Amino acid sequence: MLDEKEIVHKILDGDIELFEEIVNEYKRPLFIFLYRFCFNDSLCEEIIQQTFIKAFRFLDKVDCEKGLKNWLYQIARNTFYDTIKKEKRNNDVAMEDVEFFLASSDISPECEVINKGQINVVIKVLYELPDKYREIMILRHLEEKTYEEISEILDIPVNTVKIRIFRAREKMRIRLEEGNDFEL
Amino acid sequence: MTLNCENIKDKIKNNEILTSEEISHIEKCEYCKKTLSNSEFLISYSLDILKKETSKKDFNIDINKNIMKTIKEKTLKRIRPLSLKLIVVSIFLLIPFVLYNNFINKTQKFEDENFFKRQLSWDIISKNGKIDILKQQENMLKVKTFDESECLIQNSYSSRFLFNSNTSFEIRDNTIFLTEGSFNISVTQPEKVMIDLAGISIDVFDSNAYFEVNSNEILIYIFEGNINSIIKNHMLNFEPMTGFEIKKSDFNSIKNFKITNNFIDRFYKQL
Q1: Which among B42, B49, B57 has the least Cβ separation from residue A176?
Q2: How many of the other CB atoms lie within 10 Å of CB of A59?
Q3: Which of A43, A90, A122, B4 maximizes the CB count within 10 A of its CB?
Q4: CB atoms < 10 A from the CB of B119, how many?
Q5: pLDDT band, residue B18 (cuts 50/70/90)
Q6: Measured between beta carbons, which residues in chain A are less than 8 angstroms from residue B53?
Q7: Phi/psi of residue B60, each to 5°?
Q8: CA A35 – CA A131 distance, rounded (Å)
Q9: Of B94, B92, B127, B166, which is closest to residue B244 (Cα–Cα)?
Q10: pTM score above 0.80
């Protein structure tokens, strides 16, 4: 079984069929990551394809020591914003896609004191956050990335990551408390 | 209150991710419920729910085929960017060369134009012979001699082109094209003169040089002065000469006239 580094070297040497192994390995995590960004299957599919094609094109630039995963996340994230920009969408995340996700998903809190409506409101608040706060919350709390990994994906210093996460949570908290519907 | 509660509180304050066990604990623990801000807990709890819910998302899209097809196509096209890069690099390498050549050509053209203006004032002198001006344009003079007489073209800068006989040549810009026969050239001022003899280029010569050019060999008689360079290696004969006098004629009266020139007589005796 070849490790990632060997696969990359072999692909660069011309064995392009091996790239399918990378696609198979990462297509699902990338899809989930992108789905958490936009809740739009077709957009995710389009971006994943572009992501892998870009990855193949620039494979010689990957730092194999750091691994492919975060590099692919970085490409996917940048491709997502590029695509949104090209499509000239007003909002990166269409709220109707969020609404559709919430309506179609089977969110059933086990916690007695929290109901589905409250969770839906929190999720909506998350997706109403500006891009930089929303993406960092997704990376931290949904993708469970470390501060260092987030720093690498977003290409920002670790301290900025920490501050941004703090501010994102603060914004969410303030927004929720303004609503005043969250008494346990 | 337990240590676990404080840990959870710290984790929330530090924006750390709560485990499912910790969330379960908060749900059950009265202390946590009281001390943790409702919204803080709600955020952590909701994000956890969202994480679990999105993780369940089905992924049935078969993208492999499309990706691999595109990649193979792109791999084939990789040759093109490479070629393109080579072309771009070549162009960049050529730019300074082209610019330099352009500059040189422009300079040369400027010099040629100036030089030709001077050429236009050349006199054509024939000794006992005839010269037919076959073509005369602003930038070209085509002349042919018909007999064994000696002829000479001389410009106002004392550049002299001496014909033997049956010589046909063209002067275009600063280049003399010998089409048949042979002729002698004398340049007595620093001028740029180029002789093209059956495709053999003899480069610029300096001043005060006197030449004879034959189609099969090149004889250059240095009157005085230097030759700058000769392209291609040919036999060269150098013979010191002495000065001579030439009576000039008007450009437009070239038909029959004599050159009272001892030097030329002597010159041909040597031949």
Answers
A1: B42
A2: 19
A3: A122
A4: 24
A5: confident
A6: 105-107
A7: -110, 10
A8: 15
A9: B127
A10: no
Q: Which residues of chain A form CATH 1.10.10.10?
A: 129-177
Give the residues across from A31 on adjacent strands: none
> What tokens does B234 get?
């040919």
Q: Are B181 and B131 in contact (CB under 8 A)?
A: no
Tokens coding A124? 């909506």
| Residue entry with tokens 């059950």 | B28
For the ranges A98-107, A121-130, B215-224, which has the lowest average pLDDT? Answer: B215-224
**Cβ-based neighbour number of residue A33 at 10 Å:** 27
Residue A138 makes CB contacts below 8 A (sequence gap 6+) with A33, A36, A37
Nearest to A173 among B27, B37, B68 (CB): B37
ipTM at complex level: 0.89
B63–A144 C-beta distance less than 8 A: no
For residue A129, pLDDT over 80 is answered with yes
Q: Tokens for B227?
A: 């030759």
Q: Taking residues B66-72, what's their average pLDDT?
A: 78
Whether residue A105 and residue B39 make contact (CB cut-off 8 A), yes or no, is no
Which contiguous run of DSSP H or E holds residue B115? helix B79-119
**Residue B125 contacts by C-beta under 8 Å, 6 or more apart in sequence?**
B151, B152, B153, B154, B246, B247, B248, B249, B254, B257, B259
Residue in this structure with the two tokens 């006989």, named with its chain if needed: B165
What CATH fold (topology level) applies to the domain A4-87? Rna Polymerase Sigma Factor; Chain: A (1.10.1740)
Query: Which tokens belong to B166?
Result: 């049956």
Domain with CATH 1.10.1740.10 in chain A: 4-87
State the pLDDT at residue B224.
Answer: 41
A142 contacts in B (CB within 8 Å)? 47, 50-51, 54
Give the B-side interface with A, CB within 8 Å: 15, 17, 23-24, 27, 33, 37-51, 53-55, 57, 59, 61, 63-64, 66-68, 70-72, 74-75
pLDDT digits over A74-96, tens only?
A: 999 999 888 888 776 655 667 78
pLDDT at B15 > cutoff 60? yes
